[in-house]
Amino acid sequence: MYRQAKWDEPLIFELSKPGRIGFSLPEPIEDVEVDIPEKLKRKKLELPELSEPEVVRHYTRLSEMNYGVDSGMYPLGSCTMKYNPKINEEIAGHPKVAFIHPYQDERTVQGALQIMWELEQWLKEITGMDRFTLQPAAGANGEFTGVMIIRAYHLDRGETQRNEIIVPDSAHGTNPASAAMAGFKVIEIPSNEQGMVDLEALENAVSERTAGLMLTNPNTLGIFEEDILEIAKIVHKAGGLLYYDGANLNGILGKVRPGDMGFDVIHVNLHKTFSTPHGGGGPGAGPVGVKDFLKDYLPVPVVEYDEENNRYYLNYDLPKSIGKVKEFYGNFAVLVRALTYLKIMGKNGLKAVSEIAVLNANYLTQKLKGTRGYALPHKELRKHEVVFSAEPMKKETGVKALDVAKRLLDHGLHAPTIYFPLIVHEALMIEPTETVTKEDLDYYVEVLKKISEEAYSNPEVVKSAPHNTAVRRVDDVLAAKRPVITWRMYKQLKEKGEIDI
Ligand SMILES: *Cc1c(COP(=O)(O)O)cnc(C)c1O
Fold first, then answer.
1. Could you tell me the CA-to-CA distances from 322 to 1, 131, 138 in Å, in that order?
2. In the chain, N or C terminus with fewer CB closer than 10 Å?
């Protein structure tokens, strides 16, 4: 019997019926003696007993409680949840790609090395950098790699006093975190009214202690830092380096390059810009690119191509290398997906990505602008994403950005990023991406407008949302402070009467 998944969907253990089976095994061979030490033998094995169709239907039902990029629009600003073409999965899952082993001899994995080398050439061309490491497993891992390279560079030159990294207040939280992890003191500078780096504040912040500046451009407000060349001049003049947080290149692909803006070190999130399924913790890839004068500090190994012998090899001979930042060569399957995507999109396709991503963000901005309760702080023209503020709504009706996000779920939509960047109160950070239709955008705006009307006429409906989802509003403080993560924990707490769900 079909029924829609509910929050109290039975666990597979609860569906179990003794004696019911969902497998068939060959008859055991009688005369084989298996000598398992007594202490290793299980006394009992508690497995649910169900038929195969029951198992399939159970998990299909659970999957219907989920929402992903294959379900619909997922405008999670900064994080870029765009549609990932299925061909990427096909190539990454090909046995010749999936079943190779990192310990294999170089001669037997020439194709894998070629994939990595070719991906590096693409990234160099797209970003204007001179060399890349593909090793970092995520954006944050890339940032850490990048700031460690900046650190190694200054130490190498005897400039040991350079212990400060400057970060604007619109930065992604990983920027100050990475700088601090690499041993730097973090100096935060404010943004100006337009939502860009305040040049005067930057001038005042730089000194002989400046190791570098970390910047996202377009920044997390979706605004392009127009003064980037001036910013680069100020930092370089003070002897610092420029770090580009290129987690999200969707606003500039094929248009401008961080290398040409004056950046010395960058990271790129392949999982955001070059279409790898992510969320829920990974896996991702955050390759780091550097200008020529920093290439000796890259993690080992780097992939080289010996043109004369048409041979790819791994180069560990970088005496100044900061070392390894992840085991082996990075998340290889993610690299394969990215190269597949790049080759299929080609130069013109990549340009179209940024053009449509920017068009979509601005279309949505213009349609939503002026709606009661949502303010649009800072400059109006955006790149790939826009940040609205629900602060007027909160002041006038008590409905917060969180409530708006929850109410969107009732309409079968995913919420945008909320409460980030920190400089916008009650932030709703919307990144539609290039993979949505005009109808998707119209519907999203229509629902946001409807929620605004509700907030002013019947705020309780919004405050108590979601109403139509399998799981209603969760207590996220309790979930974080006292997570119940196994069925056994749940059973024990329930028996003791300590939880009532
Ligand atoms: C996502 C993101 C990061 C961090 O990337 P992870 O892969 O999640 O570690 C850093 N900066 C910006 C601007 C981002 O959007």
1. 59, 15, 17
2. N
Q: Is 370 exposed, middle or buried (0-12, 13-18, 19+ CB in 10 A)?
A: exposed
Q: Are residues 282 and 376 in the same domain?
A: yes
Q: Is the CB of 248 under 6 A from ligand 1?
A: yes
Task: Please enumerate in sequence order all residues whose Cβ is within 8 A of that of 169, keeping only pairs 6 or more positions apart, or say none.
Answer: 188, 189, 190, 191, 421, 422, 423
- Report the C-alpha gap between 411 and 409 in whole angstroms: 5
Q: Is the CB of 387 under 6 A from ligand 1?
A: no
461 and 485 in a single domain? The answer is: no
Secondary structure letter of residue 41 according to DSSP: S
**Integer Cα distance of 415 and 376 in angstroms:** 18
d(CA 354, CA 350): 7
Question: What pLDDT digit, counting tens, does each position of 131-146 carry?
Answer: 999 999 999 999 999 9
174 alpha carbon – ligand 1 mean position (Å): 7
Do 56 and 195 share a domain, yes or no? no
Give the range of the structural domain holding residue 499, as residue numbers without chain letter: 475-501
Give yes or no: residues 458 and 490 share one domain. no
Average pLDDT of the segment spanning 70-81: 94
User: Dihedral, CA atoms, 160, 232, 319, 148, nearest 10 degrees?
Assistant: 60
What does the alpha-carbon distance between residue 273 and residue 337 come to, in Å, rounded to a whole number?
Answer: 11
Q: Residue with the nearest Cα to atom 15 of ligand 1?
A: 78
pLDDT value at 482 more than 90: no
Q: Give the whole-angstrom CA distance, residue 219 versus residue 378.
A: 12
Among 29-33, 118-122, 126-130, 259-263, whose mean pLDDT is lowest?
Answer: 29-33
CA 131 to chain centroid = 23
Same domain, 196 and 262: yes
Q: Is 465 in the pocket of ligand 1 (CB under 6 A)?
A: no
pLDDT tens per residue, range 159-185: 999 999 999 999 999 999 999 999 999
pLDDT band at 44, cuts 50/70/90?
Answer: confident
Residue 300's H or E segment, with its range, is none
The model carries a pTM of 0.91
Kindly report, residue by residue over 341-394, the tens digit of the pLDDT: 999 999 999 999 999 999 999 999 999 999 999 999 998 899 999 999 999 999
